[in-house]
Amino acid sequence: MDWYERVIVDSGRAAALWALLAFLVTFAVTRAVTRRIRARRVAGPSADGGGALADVHIAGVHVHHQVWGILLVLVAGLVEFRWDPGSPWTEVLAVGFGAGAALALDEFALWLHLDDVYWGADGRKSIDAVLVGGALGVSLLLQAAPVGPATDGGALGTVLYLLVVALHLVTAGVCVAKGKLATGVIGVVVPIVATVGALRLAKPGSVWARRRYGEPALARSRRRFGADYARRHDRIRDLIGGAPDDAAGGAVTPGPGRKDG
């Protein structure tokens, strides 16, 4: 406990730690539950009739878990902003915020497509969103910051400081223009990530590639981000969140308003 007090509490990182832990645990539990529900459905009606794990319906409406997540984030944020209760309640609110963020981001693809794509190929975007959220949580826990304190170096020091900050934000923007949204978002907090992403090749469908690349550069981009690249990334996302229906051996195809969990 002495280590926790000295390293975490005294440095002001307790809320960030508990929010990150709640985020990771909630995501893991949520995916375990939704995968179990889907497995029962795939097994057939005889396996889907009982058990404590089931979709939540209120007045005949299937309530997706992103709803509970959004409510948790709103309540935790409003209470913290309004009353600033201090420790240990700040840590309790951080747990609620982290859990709510996990529930909401686990259905990020549903926000984006306004459709029930949770177990579709497009549902992999939710895994991307969770990975970005987790990376940002780790960065904040490590107290990384997009801009550090300005040095007291007079006018020249201030100008150089502002130039460094501007360059950092420009590199993050270049990452986004190159189709690397996750790299750009994480790069806002961790400058070296944005710098590397900005220097490397753009994705072929990105704004940067369409406007600035000739055919030779586009060909290199297509080779770099081709089918092998997509398969590698899909394997990682499927390992974390479960394979989509079209890659899971004939799982139940989602219909309007239906999702496991």
TrEMBL record:
<feature type="transmembrane region" description="Helical">
    <location>
        <begin position="185"/>
        <end position="202"/>
    </location>
</feature>
<feature type="transmembrane region" description="Helical">
    <location>
        <begin position="15"/>
        <end position="33"/>
    </location>
</feature>
<protein>
    <recommendedName>
        <fullName>Integral membrane protein</fullName>
    </recommendedName>
</protein>
<keyword id="KW-0812">Transmembrane</keyword>
<feature type="transmembrane region" description="Helical">
    <location>
        <begin position="92"/>
        <end position="114"/>
    </location>
</feature>
<feature type="compositionally biased region" description="Low complexity">
    <location>
        <begin position="241"/>
        <end position="261"/>
    </location>
</feature>
<feature type="transmembrane region" description="Helical">
    <location>
        <begin position="159"/>
        <end position="179"/>
    </location>
</feature>
<keyword id="KW-0472">Membrane</keyword>
<feature type="region of interest" description="Disordered">
    <location>
        <begin position="240"/>
        <end position="261"/>
    </location>
</feature>
<feature type="transmembrane region" description="Helical">
    <location>
        <begin position="126"/>
        <end position="147"/>
    </location>
</feature>
<keyword id="KW-1133">Transmembrane helix</keyword>
